[in-house]
Every structure is written in C-alpha cells, then in structure tokens.
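tool=predict chain=A
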Amino acid sequence: PRVAAHGKHVYAVWHQARHGLDNVYLAVSRDYGRHFRDPVRVSDNRRGSVAEMLPTVAARSGEVVVAWQEFAVGRSDDRGRVMLARLDSRGRKKGPDLRVDDTDEGGKWLPQVALDGSVPVVAWIDERDRGLQDLPLEHVYAARGTAGGGFGANVRVDAGTPVPLAAHLDNKWSPTIAVAGGKVFVAWSDFRNYNWDVYFARSDDGGLTFGPNTRIDDFQGFERVNEHASLAIDPLGRVHAAWTDLRAREPDTNIFYARSDNGGATFSPNRQLDDSKTGFNPDRDTPTNQWHPALTSAGNRLFAAWQDNRLGNNDIFFASSPDSGATFTPAERVDDTGAGQSEQGRPSMAWSDGRCYVAWEDNRRGTGQAFVARRDCPVP
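tool=predict ok
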C-alpha cells in the first residue's frame, strides 16, 4: 500500500485480486485516518480483466492522482502501460483513465507520482530500450501532465555510460520522485558501475527535461547492493535521501541517509539512519536487516519509517529528525502486533496537518492486508 494525505483526508491505494486479475483499489479517510470508507476500484477496466499492479498516490487541495502499471495482455510482463486516474478529495473520478507512457514496446514497472501544483508528474522503469544482443534494458523514464489533461513526451531520466562489465546489464530499478518549487527530483537504483548504486537527477522545468546524474551513496568498495531510495525536499530546498544499503559484503542491510544543500549537485557523506547497531555486540548478537525506507518532511523536521527485523520478524519502525537530518531520534515501533510472528513490510509515509501517516502490508490475519497508523508529528 501507498499513502498520501491532505488536510483531514488520507488516501491509501494497493492492488489485490478479488475477481480474476489484480486490480487497483483506493480507500479514503475523511477524519485524519481514524476510519476509512469502503475501498473502490480505481481504473475503468472491466473488473478482473486487466492485471493492474503497484499503484502510487499523491494529493493536494482538491486533487488526488493515482498511477499504476498494467499488462497489455494477461500476466505477460513483456508489454505494459503506465496509467493514471484523477479524482477529487472524496475519491470520485474526474474523468477517464489517462495513458502516461507513449509506447506499447517493453514492460513498464514501478510508477511513482507527485503533484506540481495540480499537474501530475510520473516516473517509472521502462524496458523500451535495447542493449547488446537486442535484450531489453530497464531505464528510468518520466512524463509531465499537460494543460489538455493528457501527458507530454516521455523523457529518459538516467544518463551516463556503464562500465564495460555492465554494458549488457545497464539496468535501473526502484525509482522515487519528489516535487518542490516547480522542480522535479528523481532517485533510483542503478547498475552502471556493476554494483547497485543510488543515483539522482533534477529537472528545473517541471519534468520536461532532466540534468546530469549524481551518485548519492559514497562507498567505493565491493560489493554494493543499494536500493529502494526515498526522497524528501524541505522548505529551504534541501534534498534528503534514504535507502536500503548493503556495502562491503556485510551480512545485513541498513537504512542510510545523505543530504544535499545545493539541489542535488553533491550529497553529504553517508551515515546510518537506523539505530540497530546501538549496543550491538558482533561476537554475540545476530545482525538484522532494515529495508524499504520512506521519508517525508515538514518544516525543519524530517520523518522516516522502514521495515525492520531486529525483533526476530519484520516490523515497522519510525524515527524523526528535529534538525533537517543532522540527528535522528531513537527508533520506535509503529505496528501493534507485539511479539507475534506476523510480518509487516514495505511502508509508505505521508504528513499533513501535524500528523504522520504510515501504511504497510501486514499478514497478521493470515493474508496480506493494508494497514495504516498515525501519530502526532507537530512542526514548530
């Protein structure tokens, strides 16, 4: 599940197979997440007839957008589409579904959406490009909504020459997007260095073109498997990034963090955001994994949630920074499953009206369900 919030409205989206193939659903809360209305299908497709997956949501005043990927035929991932629906604050559709990408060639994966005012901007992974031996490559593409209600030309976001070993594996994955002040910021996992690194690009014209790519993670040794980046932009334009980091062939993953004070031209030295190493004895304790961070910011405060198995199974943890990422509070538990053996994972987070909202996938009842929790997150 992904979550967005504006005012007292909270929006959660996910995909599930109720009738045949997976479809995208939306649930709306009008009371700050205390209760949610019955979920509704988002797309115009006939129920269960088209495989719709991995939705994402963004909300502003009176404007809600939901984007998702779908397969052109059955469950074949060789041809796909990126689609978007526009809704009002109550979750009622404003018109027919819109096509975001502009070709049926190749698979389309993992769309991410943000709003520049009322205009949606979408980034996704696209397999239209071909590499050696005519094999499809996964690259980052983006498109901006137009005044006429559709989407403009698709533009490639990632750029640069892969090292020779990665020439036939020049793939990208797990994009994330943020918008602030008319600028669009995108980060993703990138295999151009024959390791999975986190890269970043900025658009100064609302997503119509993108500038040079900047590497965010800073470890130079082998082996690097860094992914699932999340971005947040604060009121001063500082770019905050968090990601799942596996470096130096360590036995566990952690959440790492970096900040840019110059719009993404350079990033600060990386440091671990989660506190799982506090009190850790390498001769006695078992390493644990921290994955899938989600960031959001408000004022001078930064909020982070992630998936964490330090207690023996996956739970959702949370920390905040009162000083724009200079320091982070000790981690606290989000989910309320106690010492049970259920799994909670892949959180999403939003902030509105002094409250943080975290959504995640949860199997405490035996099957995967979407859960949401909230807490006060005041900003001075």
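The mean pLDDT is 96. The radius of gyration is 20 Å.
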